[in-house]
Queue: 4 jobs
Job 1
Amino acid sequence: MTSSEFMTEEGTGIIGSNAGRSRSHNRRVVLEFVRAHEPAGRAEIARSCGLSIQAVSNIIDTLQGEGLLRTVGHRAGMRGKPALQYQFNPDGAFAVGVEIRPDAMVCALLNLTGKRIFSRRKKLKDASPEKAVPAVTKLIAAAIEASGRDRKNLLGTGIVMPGPFGESGLSYSGAAVLSGWENINIKEEFEKALACPVIIENDATAAAVSERLAGTASEMNSFCFIYFGTGLGLGVIAGGHSQRGALGNAGEIGHIITEANGLPCPCGNFGCLETYASRMGAFAFLEKAGVNMDEGATLASLLEAQHPAMLEWIEGAAQHLSQAIGMVENLFDPETVILGGAMADVVIDALIEKLDLPKGSVANRPARNFPRVMRGSSGRLTAAIGGAAMIIHRTITPTVTVFH
Amino acid sequence: MTSSEFMTEEGTGIIGSNAGRSRSHNRRVVLEFVRAHEPAGRAEIARSCGLSIQAVSNIIDTLQGEGLLRTVGHRAGMRGKPALQYQFNPDGAFAVGVEIRPDAMVCALLNLTGKRIFSRRKKLKDASPEKAVPAVTKLIAAAIEASGRDRKNLLGTGIVMPGPFGESGLSYSGAAVLSGWENINIKEEFEKALACPVIIENDATAAAVSERLAGTASEMNSFCFIYFGTGLGLGVIAGGHSQRGALGNAGEIGHIITEANGLPCPCGNFGCLETYASRMGAFAFLEKAGVNMDEGATLASLLEAQHPAMLEWIEGAAQHLSQAIGMVENLFDPETVILGGAMADVVIDALIEKLDLPKGSVANRPARNFPRVMRGSSGRLTAAIGGAAMIIHRTITPTVTVFH
DNA sequence: ATTTTTTACTCAACTAACTTGAATTAAATA
DNA sequence: TATTTAATTCAAGTTAGTTGAGTAAAAAAT
């Protein structure tokens, strides 16, 4: 397998199709079907994908030759010749994800099925591009080495950084924002340093993609992910694809106003959701309530100790979150809203427990396949895993129409 | 030209590509390019669409043969052989749009360039499916007859009805809601009656598509449209395609809460945006202020007379709208937010004038191609025109991946 | 004024990838 | 044991895009 087989053509605007692009699209269509329905036989895939059995057969031969798919016995119990079943070959390829924060980097390796095969965290003294790019390069090299994988099976690297990217009115400075990255082409820098395809994405979108690849949303084509980072982000998957907006800054849910004339926010507004329902908001609330967080206490430990201030924060945050979730439901009509990110599971569960979702919502329908709100499944490595998931997602998920 | 050339394949999930589907995709790619850049020559199209000149040449020959494209002389002033320029042939095809309201139907015919070639409004005594479907059928037949068009050039019909569709917590009854349509397959009913392809869509989405086809947003791939109907709707175009959510109910912006514990809304919540910033909201406000609307006064006439209550309503509505627009900007990161629909232009302009948009928004960036908020361009026929625009949009805009 | 360069476009041969139909295999059912 | 059903393969056929040579026409250079 050469990595060029996965090269995504890039360009401005929508491009036409030809034999080669059809093949590349069909490879992804087959892979996407197998991801969602494995194990599956050739005839079954052909029927579902609108292709002839012969076409699917040829594609599967190739994919198997490349080590991406493998057989898992025959399907029994049905009439007719039993179908040879295929599934992902977990070791056929892998992807790297890196989360860059102002103070640290987290690196995770995922195999083709989205399972974590390695992860490592490293402090970052200087998060400027000049220092961070080489540091990330070194970290990845060490991670691949330690994982025992062959670099030729590397599909690419997904870099997760806090947005918003480019020029925007939210470029205030705060703990969550990286400085020095404003005027460089981040993707190009990393592609040069890493010599592999690179995707740059924000944490919330990466987390959403990760949930779809191998998490809570593996069967959904349309859902939203509320990401608890330092601030708060929203990742949106619609029609199986992440939605990034005109300039890649969609999903800035943290600065939605949920209380008119509420708490002041560094962004200049008052009453932003983020000032209530985020880790940052929690710390500010607890500090104001006189809780000393320096002695090793965490949000999770405070919650487990049923600390009154923590319970009070949960209550208030849940109220603001409920409002925001209602909004998201009415605007995006998702199959579900997933809560996750850099927040302990117990805290998220407590928040979900306390939610009081609006009745007047398109989501408040009797027949639902999933609850209105669910918890994410990838825990604290979510962002780094999400980065790698983006790469695998791009390898698998079909898109003929390419946008800028 | 046979209408089967435009038949969209439908199915569940993503389908593979083959020669025929490639051709169909490439036809759309060429048409979409010409729409956005007309007039254009073959070589120029080929370069931009990632196809060979020969492929584009063959497609253009076909499109010209079908009457969809026509030549408009040669491009002069450049070196080399002057390129033959192509543009849409306005009369090559047309589409019908129908807006169905509880008390009336509006029908509009658009030519291929999105220009209105005919429109007619008719009262509807009984908006039940049994009565309305035949009434619409008759109206369309009369409209086609009166426009002098040949039915064989009809691309299809777009029916615009107030959502939300299907089961949802917003199925309260109110003036804007049609009853009796809950448990029938609306698309099938109309396709049977009209014997042409049919799209069912809500007013906001249809209006958004219309703005992109031949309006304020003709060069945008990502924008939002806030539609003033009886209530309030949001149409979202992202990546050139309308976003409808998991069940087609995305964009219910009317029931976003912009004032905690505010005015009661029929949906069960308090403080919904719709109770302030919608026609319904305006009438309620004015009635409460003692303004008698029965004597032929309209929102526009009150505004022109600088009626204090009207000015007060504008002020309040603009405040709530500003909040909602800020939200929409932060969540979708659109190129612009367009305001339009069944509200007089002067009123919309007054609202825009009074907006106080949040500073903390990803949209508040110095370098913008468009203002943060703009007014829509299709006026009171917006919804019906939008229906027809949906059909033309589908004919033109490429999508290989087909979703359910 | 003539030649060169540049660009658009057409014709004909070529190729990649999907489709079709016949043949083969293997399990369940009659 | 024969029949039916379904999966898969083989080989030929089809569609549509690509490639390369050749023509046409305008601008720029000589």
Job 2
Amino acid sequence: MADDVFKALADPTRRLILDELVERNGQTLFEICGRLVTKHGLGLSRQAVSQHLAVLETAGLVITRREGRYKFHDLNTEPLEHIAGRWLGQKAPESTP
Amino acid sequence: MADDVFKALADPTRRLILDELVERNGQTLFEICGRLVTKHGLGLSRQAVSQHLAVLETAGLVITRREGRYKFHDLNTEPLEHIAGRWLGQKAPESTP
DNA sequence: TTGATAGGCAAGCCGAAACTTGCCTATGGT
DNA sequence: ACCATAGGCAAGTTTCGGCTTGCCTATCAA
């Protein structure tokens, strides 16, 4: 469960994909491909991005909905909220003024 | 910078090490080895744990201090606090009562 | 000083992960 | 009906991460 989330976040390309989805939710595979190439200059194939999206989906960080021949990808931040708490929980909360 | 933190957290053994340091801070390499073997039943060599600790240290999650022939490992949770905020930042903060 | 304890360095092995390549399915427009 | 667009599947390659093995250094105690 949490293992999938950490493994998904381990790759810099996947973190960039999450960034793009924060900026504009509900993008298709081709849109994400275009953004990664033009805005960040990384040259990867469409299948590479597709596989990254699959990893993000099994981690629960991306939820997909199909409409016709389009498949839209929505960001789901819920798995991100409890991740660090595993080690921050019972710590003395240092001065947070 | 953040890349090191995510890569460090990607491995389940390293996450277990952080758990052990939460439970008891300032352990030596041999102490951590013993705990991983006895409490969690994983059979890994001392060098494996040493390499894991090195990864955690370059990520800033573990800080070491040397005293004589002992090297104590202290947890540093600071890099964990801003990790998820990258994607949670401009999201509507749900009810935190 | 010798031995035991705590740790470090470096090369090598192996399996998993990232990426490619090639082909296939499905939807929509004209 | 036809073709272009959006996406999927599967095998192959290559790179990288985790782990081992073997040996070396340093500190302390007797």
Job 3
Amino acid sequence: MTLPVPLPPVTSVTRQLSRRSVFEALLHRSPISRADLAKVTGLSKQTMSEVIDAFGQQGLVRQVGRTSGNVGRTALLYELSPEGGHVLGIDLGARRLTVALADIAGRVLAETDEPTDNRGGAWALDQIARLSDRLTRDNHTHLSRIRSIVLATPGVVNPRSGAIEMSPNITGLGHLNVVALLGEKLGSPVVIENDINLALLGEIWHGCAQNVANVAFLALGSGVGLGLYANGQLVRGENGAAGEIAYLPLGGDPLQAESRLQGCLEYQVGATGVLRRYREAGGSEVDSVIQVFERAQVGDPIAAQVIGETARLTGLAAAAVIAMVDPQLIVLGGSVGARPDFADQVARLLLQLSPRQVEIRTSTLGRRAGVVGALSVALSRLHDAFFGVSELAASLPLPPPAHGSARQ
Amino acid sequence: MTLPVPLPPVTSVTRQLSRRSVFEALLHRSPISRADLAKVTGLSKQTMSEVIDAFGQQGLVRQVGRTSGNVGRTALLYELSPEGGHVLGIDLGARRLTVALADIAGRVLAETDEPTDNRGGAWALDQIARLSDRLTRDNHTHLSRIRSIVLATPGVVNPRSGAIEMSPNITGLGHLNVVALLGEKLGSPVVIENDINLALLGEIWHGCAQNVANVAFLALGSGVGLGLYANGQLVRGENGAAGEIAYLPLGGDPLQAESRLQGCLEYQVGATGVLRRYREAGGSEVDSVIQVFERAQVGDPIAAQVIGETARLTGLAAAAVIAMVDPQLIVLGGSVGARPDFADQVARLLLQLSPRQVEIRTSTLGRRAGVVGALSVALSRLHDAFFGVSELAASLPLPPPAHGSARQ
DNA sequence: TATTTATTCGGTCTATTGACGAATTAAACT
DNA sequence: AGTTTAATTCGTCAATAGACCGAATAAATA
């Protein structure tokens, strides 16, 4: 165990670009020799040796053996070292708290979960700190070596301040400065992101939506929500409220009191909505949507009808998503949405609802999607902190209109 | 008039970055002296002189006078030269063809229009070539000096191939390879983009949506369409069909034949839909939506009711946009949507439909929006061709999942 | 021996720094 | 008032450091 890895010293832009492309190659092709790295990146062998030396001194890279069997001198092989830094992904759900640990190379080292402390607020934050501390210690590292943390939480997360603006399911979280408190407890920069957005990114990184630039994630569980990924970027919206489709004006009168309170769509397809409709249609006593599904499977016609209506409304929401953002793929997730029988019904309806056919898949990561997505963002943030060129990547802004623009 | 400007010779990445930031400063602050440029860009005076010299030799920059009145030596002032290159924006509408000319600094030099050749197809392309040729000659330049052309057209434009996939309003355009044909006629690279997307970009550049990162443009005229701008980027969708909200399942039964043919929403709020509803409600003989508005203004209750219903459905569509992408601003455009009386009705309805209030504005560029947006894209493409750093991808791609990822 | 890897050396390109002359205004002095 | 001096700013020159590459060379191995 070496000393904590220092931040890389300031280098010139061009060296930083070289470092960046070497890092990227190491990320995707390790273990790899310096000669191969030079071929892949287009840099010279000379530059490569310099960069690898610097990486080695920072603990970013380690040697892992050498080639054999080929003609010519054997080559030393290198890979990213776990010493380079670790990241934490945390999914703070209303029922379950999950924490996962990965290293800078994106290797998921461990994952653990337990029921969320139902006293909420500060207790939940304490619980996060405890669980994170244990997870790191159990895996030969320590909180002080964590370089980036991302927290998944339900509710609207302001993309500028990081504040949680609506968190109906976890009590007393909206009033806390979670970023500051958790950052202090854990000793690393913390970023908060909406759980559905992170579930989407999870599916994109390790799940059923890999290598896709335009995806929508439609989550249906106790509530309803949407994650949008367009042009290879997460769409957060101006206030972080993109994807809050509870208020989509579908499935009922959007002006009636219930719609305005809970959201028109969620009033119908949210868990309480499904149970209400089952009850009102004369269904027998149940206390979870899962039970309605079970009833339907054993032949309860009322349950089947209620679920069919839920699928119809979900299909309408999916059709709206397709019409508006034209994704290549829609992933259905959440405790209800991820059920294959349910997804099949939605997909069948979509055949008639939308003129352009879009593939429908069910979430492959399930409950893990959020925490995996949190890891992916934490990892990206760590990489950008080391090798970011954010100020360069943007397109040139156009000049504002001049006052004397010609017309004819 | 000098010789055609040669492309800049290949330079190193770091010099290219310097050139880029000098160009950007010139774009936004000209006329400006070399000393000020050095301060603004952070480069040294020495480097600045080298870059400005190179720009001058390429014809990108010209001297425009000198400072006076200040203490110290006078400074020479520089600005981008029109010799640096011109761009064309073209809006090929079903009724009107508009062409506009700008120089590399974003100065709009001229704009002209005439009725679209209603024979469509190849005739329209010939007409574009004629009008473009005339516009450039009338403004002391020539087609051969045009470096970038963007064409606005109704219909779905495939973002990868540039092919026009659905163009209901202009006959015989879908079967032509417009990019190749027009590029050959005009002698410059041509890019095609959906007219509503470009109208949105026009409002962002020179209209009512400046300095906003998340905007939606809701166009209501003969048809209905949407342009989305999120994270400072246009959302095109996987097939370029983002914003094709004709098929949004609002305002009627999305499964009925008419909805599946024309789109559920457009069947109601498109021009033919409005006229049909007015006729079915017993309204007197009219042949344009404008006339229905005029009737309503002089007290025709049926016309008022029909327009109110149109506004209600437009409000529902806007509410759906707000719920899904959370824009900071919605711009209403198109011959119907841009009417202030109509927009007021929509805005009033939105107060009740959406829990979060979003500003509504009407298009300030009107019919010019498309061509202005085309200019802005043409300009951005020219800038990127000169100073692009596209190979420096914005974010490092994460590694794909390894096979042996840990769990516990 | 042929081939591949890794290192060393020299050359080029770019950017920065500090010094300097040129040009101009402000202030001081006769 | 007119002239001289100081201060300030602009742009260039020369020297230097960082980074890259290519060629030559040494090392290792089938």
Job 4
Amino acid sequence: MDTYENIYEVVRQVPFGMVTTYGKVAQLSGMNNARVVGYALSVLQANTEIPWHRIVNRKGAISYREGAGPSLQKTMLESEGVVFNKKGCINLEIYRW
DNA sequence: GCTCTGACTAAGA
DNA sequence: GTCTTAGCCAGAG
């Protein structure tokens, strides 16, 4: 459990209206493995306090099981003021934490 | 204890 | 810019 605790801690530090990448979280959490970060978020519950929707892949695109249902995450990010481009990707130049 | 899979990333083509 | 290959660590079988 302590393994993912670092990851959750990092994600929780992401400010409102910003996003970060799996690699960044992995590096900050000391995991150095983006896949584990994704796995850690996958075991999170919907009523969690962790802003998992602020985590995107390196392209800035939504990742919720590779296109399983990104509409929810996109909506939540838009509610925070995050803007998506035509490809449905976030401008990491602006919103990257 | 070994093998496969996985919300990924970096490097090469 | 996109596609492919290799690598990383942690769970599930």
